[in-house]
Each structure stands twice: as structure tokens, then as C-alpha cells.
TrEMBL record:
Keywords: Receptor, Transcription, Transcription regulation
Domain NR LBD: 11-230
InterPro entries, per database record: NHR-like_dom_sf, Nucl_hrmn_rcpt_lig-bd
Domain of life: Eukaryota
Gene Ontology CC terms: nucleus
GO molecular function terms noted in the UniProt entry: DNA-binding transcription factor activity
Protein name: NR LBD domain-containing protein
Protein source organism: Pristionchus mayeri
SUPFAM superfamilies attached to this UniProt entry: Nuclear receptor ligand-binding domain
Amino acid sequence: MTRIRKSSEINLRPLNNFVHPSDIAEDSFPNIPATHEISYQTRRILMTTLFDFASISFPDFTTLSRDEKWRLVSGSAVRVSILESSYRSSKIYPDDNRVFVSYTTTISPDSLDYYLSSTPLLVNIEEAKKELRKNLEQNAGRSKRAMRRIDPSDEEFLAMLALSFWNNSHESLCRMAAQNRAAVMRDLHVYYTTRGETGYATRIGELFCLLMDNEALGVNSELYFRRQTT
């Protein structure tokens, strides 16, 4: 999933941000400030790769109908994107105000003019800048700080990602979602016990607080996200 997104996004870059293939290492490649235009395309890439993620990670996903798959993926994309952004930006940019917009692009209060340089002419740039700055400072920044404070391991983050993906209350998906969330929790318990940790209830509570915060941000962002992907 991450390799596909990395390769796809790098190939979307304008020539002035071209990266030679030999300069792209597995875990080291230059991230660039996002633009509105590129963000629209990277969101579509994320939606596509979420289908692969679900098919590989959860075999029962393949038994769903086309509409059910789309309902699950489209309903979780915002949450997954925000969760991943908070996690990766807290690791890669712990000491500044950048957050990830996609796998290889970032945004910060200092890059808002550049981000909005590709917006449609009818958009009120000053109003958009004001709202983006407010969101970065009050929402994305808070989520990043919380993620840094809790500092989940890679295994804990993957569990959070799966739980967030399956947080769907639609009638046709409830049973499968509950089964997969229960399986993720069992795996998380195994993870702690194999490490010799016994009093991990508090730790799980901290992770769920992060998820709840992420859910709140997802609700606030969903309308905007849907406007950009339809």
C-alpha cells in the first residue's frame, strides 16, 4: 500500500520537484509541500490503495458486494488519512508544525499560499487560508501533539489503523466490522503478552483516546474531503 502510494505520488510531481528513481530509497525520499491540485489526486490514490489494503489484510472483505466495499472504504478514508498523518508527522517532523497531506506531501501554516496557488479561481483565497490555518492549529496540530505524547509503536499504530478502518455502523457491515475489530483486539492482547506486559489496560485506553480524537477530526473533515473526491 505505501509503496504504491509513494511511487504514484512521486510521479505526479511537477518537473521542478522531480526525483530521480536512484534517489528514492525505501524509507528515505524528499517530501514536498502539497498543493490543492496534487492533494485532490493523492486522495484518489489513497482510496484506491485502501481496497488493496483491505483485500490483503481482511480476506472477508473480498466477499462484500461492490457497494459495500465502497461504503467501507469511502467511509474510512478520512479517518485513516488523519490517523496516518498524525502518526507519521509526529515521527518525521516532531519539532515543527508540518503535517502530512498525503504519503509524500505536507502542509504547514507557512506553506498555505503555495497550497492554495492551484485552487479554482472562484475560491475565496483569504477565507480558505483562514480556515486552513485554523484547522492546522486547532485540529491537526493537537492530534499530532497527542500522537507524539502517546507515541504508539508500529504494531499499535497498525492496530489503530485497522480499528479505524472497520469503524462502520452500516447495517450490512456491522457483523463483519465487529468480528474484525474483535480479531484486531485479540492480536493486540497477544502483542502485549508476548512482550511480557501485563498491566496494559491503561495503554489500550490511551490508544482508544487517540482514536476518539481522530474520529472527531474525521467528522469535521469529511464534508470537505467528499467535495474534493467527487
